[in-house]
Amino acid sequence: MSRRHEPFSKTHIGLAKRRNVVTKASLSTHMVAASKRTRGVHWDDMQPFAPPEDWYSGTGRDGRFQVVVQPAGPGYRHILTEQDIRARLAELPPHFLRCLEVIQLSRMTRKKQTFPCYGMQWGNSLYLYPLEDTLVEYFQSPPGPSLANEVRMYGGEWVHEPPTTWKLVWSEAAIKDFYLNNILFHELGHLLDDRNTKSAQRERYAEWFAVRYGYLPSRATVRPRQRSGRRPVRRRHHRCAG
């Protein structure tokens, strides 16, 4: 499948834009960065290009992708392991992985804390970002309905600390489910989408793909009754098309 080359797209900044996520200790010093921990950052295609990650090209063939693990960084941890990722993707039809070359578990840096995200797709590579090692995220504004519903789908819990702080608290099982059956599949959906060109269309496709091939199959054997009555919701992330 040939891929077009274009600047960053604006997807897995998604959650980040509504998220304003930083550690509680540094919350007051990051008030200006209004769009935090969504799934990325809104990149202006007219601005100078600045690579957000290591670029990989020609490193994988026909589904034989590599997994690159970087140190998560102080105060952060990776949610998934290489074994988790390979086992989950092995359940997909082989043609879904034909163009996938690299999955990188990326490090958290000071620069990335200004536009924190859960995941990103760039070219034929997917990037998954670490989470605070406490599994608690802090927001400066209440979650919207879509974000609140999405978190509930995967077992996250919102806690309001008056007057203006909201905590998103994850259990070990919930955050692994969120990354394994949502973030990973959302980014893979972007990689596979070779039809849509507009950001909104590409985002809808990635959302559908994550629900169809990530969320629903994961509930088919564990909690089959939860397959109905759940509406797909907009998920955040920063997608870089390549």
Give a verbal description of the structure.
About 30% of the residues lie in helices and about 15% in strands. It is an alpha/beta fold. It has one domain (about 15-240). The strands form 3 sheets. It has a 5-stranded mixed beta sheet with strand order 1-3-5-4-10, with helices on one face. It has a 3-stranded antiparallel beta sheet with strand order 7-9-8, covered by helices on one side. A hairpin with a 2-residue loop joins strand 4 and strand 5 (about 125-130).
N- to C-terminal separation?
12 Å
Give the oligomeric state of the chains in this entry, treating copies of one chain as homo and distinct chains as hetero: single chain
**Approximate shape:** globular
How much of the sequence lies in strands comes to 15-25%
The helix content, as a percent range, equals 25-40%
Number of helices: 5
What is the mean pLDDT? 77
Q: Which regions contain 5 or more consecutive residues with pLDDT less than 50?
A: 1-49, 223-229
Number of domains: 1
Radius of gyration: 17 Å
Please provide a brief summary of the model:
By secondary structure, this protein is α/β, with parallel strands linked by helices. It has 5 helices and 10 strands; from the N terminus they run αββαβββββαββααβ. It has helices at residues 14-19, 82-89, 145-154, 172-192, 199-220; strands spanning 66-69, 76-77, 102-105, 119-122, 125-128, 131-132, 136-139, 157-161, 165-169, 238-240.
